[in-house]
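As a warm-up, study this chain.
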Amino acid sequence: MVTGDNLITAKTIAVECGILDLDADLSEPNLIMEGKEFRGLTDVQREEVAEKISVMGRSSPNDKLLLVQALRKRGDVVAVTGDGTNDAPALHEV
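Now compare it with the structure written out below.
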């Protein structure tokens, strides 16, 4: 789940949607991260961490696009949904 919400809100929504288990160990380094941290990674690092991310909070439209690109470079099939113009770059990419 990639959202512009802060991490606390994003985690709560992810638990309510069944993306995260309330009892899961959330200390996994790349399970939950902010867009700023993701965009600060190199292309290779983004590819390595992309499939480990369960929740990305405080993300920008470009962060969503970078995630889609990293997953596709790995050969993954990617689907994107969104409800706003900030989702357009990632939607257009797939």
